[in-house]
Every structure is written in C-alpha cells, then in structure tokens.
Amino acid sequence: MAFKEKVVPTIRIGDSLLVPIQIDLDDKTVEQLQAQLLEEIREHRVRAVILDVRMVEVIDSYISYTLSETAAMAHLMGCRTVICGIQPPVALTLAQMGIELQGFLVARDLEHAMGLVYSP
Amino acid sequence: MDGKLRELLDISENDFDVVVRITREEDIAIARQMAKQLAQELGFSLADVTKVATAVSELARNIYRYAQTGKIMIRKRLEESGGPAIQVVAADRGPGIDNVDRVLARGYTTHERSLGIGLPGVRRLMDFCEIASKVGTGTVVRVEKRRRKF
After folding, report:
1. What ipTM score was computed for the predicted complex, to two decimals?
2. Cross-chain residue pair B25–A27, CB shorter than 8 Å
3. Closest Cβ–Cβ partner in A58, A92, A97 for B32
4. Which domain of life is it from (chain A) (predicted)?
5. Which terminus of chain B has a smaller tally of CB atoms within 10 A, N or C?
C-alpha cells in the first residue's frame, strides 16, 4: 500500500513509532493515517505505535472505530498500540457515549506510554 | 410523525445562525467546527463544547453516509427559560429510517464501518433529542443542549 505523503509526521524512538496527532481528524485523514501507520509498521518493524492525542479536540464514534481497527491491525502485525494524552473533555464525551477504545493500551502521558511499551 | 417531519423539513434556514450544507466528507469537520464556535460564544464549558461538537460530528456523518446530502443548522437560543441553549437541526431528504426506536438502540447499524453508537451517543450527550423520519421522505434530528450553571 503506497501513500504519497504522510498525513501525520511520525518520530522513531528506538523501536517505537511516536505519532503526535496535531491536526483535526476528519474522516479522510483518519483513514489515511491508518494506511500510513500500517505501512510504517511494516517498513520499520516497530514493536509499538504510540498515538499522542493531546491536541485532538473531538474523537467521535467513527474516529474511535477507525483507531481501534488500526490497533487491531497493528496487533495482528505483532505491534502494540498505546494511546496517550486523551484530554479530560474528550474522555468525558467518550465515556458518556459508551465508547471503549478497544485494542489499545492507554497511558497518561508519553513517559507512561514508553513505560508500557517496554513492560513485559 | 408525518406532520412533525414536514414541519421540521420546512423549517426556515433564516432562523439559524449557521447553515452547513453536507455534500462532501470534509463538511463533517466544518459542521463540528461551527458547532464548537457557537457553543463557545454561548459560554459553554469546555466539556460541553466538546460534547456538542461530537454530537454534531455524528449527525453530519449520518447525513453524509446515509443520505449523501443534507444540512446542519445551528442556532443560539438566548430566550430559553432554562438559560441559554444551542439548538441543532440535522435535515436530509434521504432514504429515511423505517424504525427509529431501533436506530436509537446501542449496537444497531446498517453500516459496515460503524459501532452503532452514533445516534444513541448523541442522545446521551445532549439534553434533548427528537427524531422525525419517514422512508422515502427524509430524516430530521433536532437536538438541544443548555448551558450549565457552575
């Protein structure tokens, strides 16, 4: 699967891929991000993908569905997915809607996320 | 139900502060940005701004996904007895819903890439949620959220 350009610039840290999401996740973007991440997991053989969503203001049912699906795909490729930095209003909204982010390890911040990646 | 649907489908755009026509996927993000802005202007808490923006995102996506085209209309209501409120009307002349109760049940969906959580989620995020729909005519969802006192 080829993509012309990355929708989200990623950073390699050891054998993890840090994905700081700093743009509004619209439907097309979140689908492109999924394709990009799967390609990067394959290409760089990373053991974990860390999604940093500190800057994300809205996570609705479709975005959470697509992110969970991405985590499930990553899992099938032998890769962990950690999500960190969910903002309190976003957490409240997700909880009230009854959305569970399945397939993720959830971390408070980047440091916590790195800890989870390297825990057994 | 027919009377209500007709009344809501004929509602005048002029009564709203913002009308976003949903014809492309990108319009979903535009609708939620506009909802966020109006809720902020009304002095909603950050938590409630996020809930309103998320609810509008769900409603706009439903239009795009099931009816292809429609519109999201948003207005600030200052005269409400319960305090300022934001009202959103999502209207389309798409295929309609044959069983409204069923789409309000969690986990029901006709779309393959969905949790079936959209409309029930909207209802939980907002203070008021009304759906009028008829197969072959269209669907109108009207929701409201009041500003919380602190």
Report:
1. 0.89
2. yes
3. A58
4. Bacteria
5. C
